[in-house]
Amino acid sequence: MIRPCRNDETESVLSIINDAARAYQGVIPPDRWHEPYMSQEYFLGETGQGVVFWGWEEEGELQGVMGSQEVRDVTLIRHAYVRSAFRSRGIGGRLLIHLLSRTEKPVLVGTWAAAGWAVRFYEKHGFRLVNSGEKTRLLCEYWSIPERQIKTSVVLADPRWFERSQA
Predict the structure, then answer these.
(1) Quick one: pLDDT at residue 59?
(2) In terms of residue numbers, what domain contains 94?
């Protein structure tokens, strides 16, 4: 079942994020990895800036989460994670489809360039990589991330973005 994450579920959401993010360890630049991957302070900062988390509940517990954030004329998909024991069950895809259905705006996703599995996931769902010049512009315009992360990330966009940019 997909539902909004509640304020009293911060610990559960962070548990999912930090469990799933272990896949990045040794893949992303070492200076960008930290333990825990997402702290409670960072999480509260994200929600304070408008990131809304949705969760997949199974067996009475959250097993996957995905955030969305409205930023001016686009929707960003933020912090998409599925508990490692529940991967490859379609949870991430269902969360993504749900969030896509909730917006009319073009949708953008930023992820680590080295996380090929994440890039393939979004491509499987109709997203396409934007070129490197556009990537840098988008990351600077819609995200608040360090320069190092900009250099080591990619941006994928849904078809609405490409339709709008060609209009």
Answers:
(1) 85
(2) 2-166
